[in-house]
């Protein structure tokens, strides 16, 4: 075993994070946790992970679940295409692999929603394949260990990091399940990236088990945080929307978003492009068969996605009935909004506003 692996794995034995999916690293558990952890903090994932497994404990139950059930279990985690792909991939595992999640990174990568990193994480942790799982954490650690000064977000950097860590992995291993050296090697680097070789603040080099192998620490002590080299991203596109909370009695209008594109398949409060003035808002409502009894401006809200930003203006619209013709929305009661329709956090400002109104009305009724 390389000296690097030895130091890293010794440190991991003493300092590893105790995480629910590490206790029983079955392929399904590792897969689910890795998909949930994409772009999401570990602490935020724990509750979702437990709830998801309670309802859908294995690949077969996931493959047989309704899309809305999966989305509801994901509500608030964001990046909903992850759970849509998870379900699609579970169906493929049932049909193509007889319900057995494939055991090599090469097969795993062919499933929807599984990229290079996730395939390597599942294959190494659950099946003991000798393959580094290179994500942003490992790229950052690599850039510092090797003083890699070029743009880290390139296929060339990815390849270099992968080869570098593969060379350092233990030579023997390959057992399935908990405590296999290849899975541990990857998880040790993940933990190192989250606790020691930190992204934004200065890394904790004093307590780093591999500092003796780290070029930037040796050659430019104190300047470790200068790497990795990440070029500034493009500016986010700003979009303006008007969101309507159309209410009739206890019910509020929601609608399903299109099956493709941003927040595909989720539910939303009816909304229009642009920040509409009152007259324009009334015109839009009538065009959608809604005759308001009362309308008023409510809160403004903002939501920032990876590549865009929404600035929203809100209206509460009270209506007795819809005009003739097809009703273009689902009128949902508070229990349905809470338990059935998955409304993404992009509309969180309005879901929160609605919950406060319902709470106020219920409190008044009880007095
Ligand atoms: Fe990161 Fe510092 Fe360790 Fe180098 S010595 S890997 S910069 S924590």
Q: Which helices and strands appear, and what pairs or packs with what?
A:
Blueprint: H1 3-15, H2 20-23, H3 27-37, H4 42-55, H5 59-64, H6 67-74, H7 81-97, H8 105-108, H9 116-127, H10 136-145, H11 155-168, H12 181-195, H13 215-219, E1 237-248, E2 251-256, E3 267-268, E4 271-273, H14 278-287, E5 294-304, E6 308-318, E7 330-332, H15 334-339, H16 348-366
Parallel strand pairs: 1-6
Antiparallel strand pairs: 1-2, 1-4, 2-3, 2-7, 5-6
Helix pairs in contact: 1-12, 3-4, 3-9, 9-12, 10-11, 10-12
The chain binds iron/sulfur cluster.
General description of the model:
- This protein has 367 residues and is of the alpha+beta class.
- The chain has 16 helices and 7 strands.
- Strands 1, 2, 3, 4, 5, 6 and 7 form a 7-stranded mixed sheet that branches.
- Helix 1 (3-15) crosses helix 12, helix 3 (27-37) runs antiparallel to helix 9 and helix 10 (136-145) packs across helix 12.
- The model has no long low-confidence stretch (mean pLDDT 93).
- Bound molecules: iron/sulfur cluster.
- Residues 141, 144-145, 196-197, 203-205, 208, 210-211, 214, 216-217, 224 line the site of iron/sulfur cluster.
- The site of iron/sulfur cluster has 15 residues, from helix 10 and helix 13.
